Amino acid sequence: MSNPDPQVGTESVSTERALWQVIEPFHTITYFAPEAREATDALRLRGGWMGYFASRAAPLGPVPAEVVIAIFYNFHPNLVRRAIPDAWTYATPEAVLAARLDGVDRAIRRLLGDLVGTSLVEEAAALAKEAASACELAGRPLYAANAALPWPDESHLVLWTAATHIREHRADGHVVALMAAGVDPCEAHVTIAATGATTGEQLRRHRWWSEDDWSAAVARLQARGWLDREGLFTPEGRAGRAAVEAETDRLAATPWRSLGPERTARLRRVMRAVSGLVVERGGIPIPNPMGLSWPPAPSPLDGEDAAGAVHRGVPRMR
Fold it and tell me: Which of 32, 201, 297, 302 could join 306 via S-S bond, C-beta 3.0 to 4.6 A?
């Protein structure tokens, strides 16, 4: 999966990042839940990586590996080529999309339990769908491909679909920000590890970059003045990574401008509760390759709710 951006520290974060922090866990159920793997295994997609690349790329159609390498950006090309286009000989994109939704449906029902079908999930789904529908299409290939798909009927699946749209919209923008800053795919991971949001070992394992690839990327960033001799950020490097994140936020702002501050803050509170239950019940691992931690960092959106108190019918998670 792409790395929209890590949570860096515990300082107050922007509106855009605050929404990523609480929406990302709900989307990423599809990458970590056993039900999702079972659904792709049933199509005879070989191994978790083939299932991952096929299910995430399926909205684009039966694309070649080169398209996935370009759009996903941060995986070693050889890892992509092990799965794509071979996956399309086992299952059509349409079959993969149906399996993806089936796996997510069963996983959400297990993780949320009695919360499925409640007014809380319906409210979150309506807000998230409105935000997702406001995202721009231009320059957002993975968001646009998902946005062209029909919406499901049940509220928990509407919420997952909207979370997926919002996540891929932000991820598309993050790739633009990285490229504009001259940060290549492996360098992007090195800078994530330098923030402390996750480890280099975990990123190499999950993205298939070798020790030699990693060392070469470190050397390039050192020559650029972004890393010191120990591989830690220099002031220039920290500022450069921060600029990438700020640009990612700027490019991700459209859905939240459309929703407005009050309803955006409401969605943040509701999703903090919903995703909190997902995390609490093991729906995603902490730490993880996305650099997402839990609980989320405070945001100005929280107001008096910064410590995690909840209002207007949002349940307190234990």
Answer: 302
**pLDDT for res 311:** 37
CA distances from 20 to 10, 237, 314 (A): 15, 23, 19
Mean pLDDT of 204-223: 94
Write down the residue that tokens 């919903």 correspond to: 274
Residue 253, classed as helix, strand or coil, is coil
Residue carrying structure tokens 């991952």: 52
Cis preceding-peptide flag for 141 (omega within 30 of 0): no
From the CB of residue 208, how many other CB atoms can be counted at a distance below 10 Å?
16
pLDDT in the model for residue 38: 96
| Spatial distance between the Cα atoms of 56 and 48, rounded to a whole number of angstroms | 12
Q: Verify cis geometry, omega within 30 degrees of 0, for the bond prior to 59.
A: no
- In whole angstroms, what is the distance from residue 268 CA to residue 16 CA? 10
Instruction: Give pTM, 2 decimals.
Output: 0.90
Q: What SS3 state is found at 227? A: strand
pLDDT score at 101: 98
